[in-house]
Specification:
Helices cover about 50% and strands about 0% of the residues. By secondary structure, the chain is mostly helical. The protein has a single domain (about 10-145), classed as Four Helix Bundle (Hemerythrin (Met), subunit A) (Up-down Bundle), CATH 1.20.120.
C-alpha cells in the first residue's frame, strides 16, 4: 500500500521523524540546511492547500502517465530545481517552524480528500488522494536528505 499523509499512522511517523531532526543536521546532498528544508516542505504543503501561489511551469510532467510515473514510481533525482516561491521564506525559530509544519500537515489531513484541489505547478491537476501520496513522498524525500 502506498504511503500517504491521509493515513494517521503515516502522518504521525513523518512528524516523529521531523521531531528527531536537529536544526544543526547536515544534508547528504543539496544546499538546504535543516531549517530551510523545513520551511520548504511546509510551504509546499501550503501550496497544495492553495494558501501559497506558485508560478506554474508547464511541460510534459503535467500529462498522464508521465506525471504519475515521476510522482509515484521513478526515483526522484537529488537537487532538482523547485518553484522559487518555495525557497523565499527564511526560517525564524526551530520549534516554531516544526509547529508550522505539523499544523500544515494536519490542516491538509482535515480537508476532504474528494474535494477540489489546487493543481500542481508541474504535475497539473491532481486528486486529493494523489496530493496525499505526493506530499508524503516529498516529506520523506527531504527527511532522507538528512538521514532521518
Amino acid at each position: 500500500m502506498a504511503h500517504t499523509i491521509w493515513s494517521e499512522a503515516d502522518r504521525q511517523a513523518l512528524l516523529n521523524r521531523f521531531g528527531r531532526l536537529s536544526p544543526e543536521a547536515r544534508p547528504k546532498w543539496g544546499s538546504f540546511d535543516a531549517p530551510r528544508m523545513v520551511t520548504h516542505v511546509t510551504d509546499s504543503i501550503r501550496a497544495s492547500l492553495g494558501e501559497l501561489k506558485l508560478t506554474p511551469f508547464p511541460g510534459p510532467l503535467q500529462y498522464w502517465p508521465i506525471n504519475v510515473l515521476v510522482m509515484f514510481y521513478l526515483p526522484w533525482p537529488k537537487s532538482t530545481p523547485t518553484a522559487p516561491e518555495l525557497l523565499e521564506r527564511k526560517p525564524v525559530h526551530w520549534a516554531s517552524e516544526l509547529e508550522a509544519l505539523a499544523s500544515a500537515v494536519n490542516q491538509f489531513a482535515a480537508r476532504d480528500v474528494n474535494g477540489a484541489w489546487t493543481p500542481h505547478v508541474a504535475f497539473g491537476a491532481l486528486t486529493g488522494a494523489q496530493w496525499g501520496r505526493l506530499n508524503y513522498r516529498h516529506l520523506d524525500h527531504h527527511l532522507g536528505q538528512f538521514g532521518v
